[in-house]
Target: DUF4112 domain-containing protein
Amino acid sequence: MDDHSIEDAPESLDEPALKRIRAVATFLDESVEIPGVGYKIGADPILGALPVAGDLVSAGMSMYIVAEAANLGVPLNKLLRMIANVTVDTVVGAVPVLGTLFDAIWKANVKNVEMVEDHLESMAGDDDEFESDPVKIEIDEE
Model:
């Protein structure tokens, strides 16, 4: 996962939440490097080796990332894409043997964190989006 820097992020950004979702994604998708290959896998394919229960635990941890994304202000359309990533990861990951290999390659959590970071970076230049204009109500007294 790329280590994005949110230098111009809005002041209201919850940086600890961003660090937490990065940590969860790294744990699930890229916490262990395979020696000699340089490829990283995480706990997701390992948990997937436990039929049903492992996939459900992994899905629950993945949904934590989606929940934090919602708290960080990620819009609904992106949240739905994130949920779709988790759903694909969970359903295909539940297939014996092939699902474990899929989990090692798909990396839904890394994709989801990248979506959050991309959204926050795009918002960094839009300070106007975080300020609200006063609403003016005119009453016609005829």
Q: What stands out?
A: The chain has a mean pLDDT of 84.
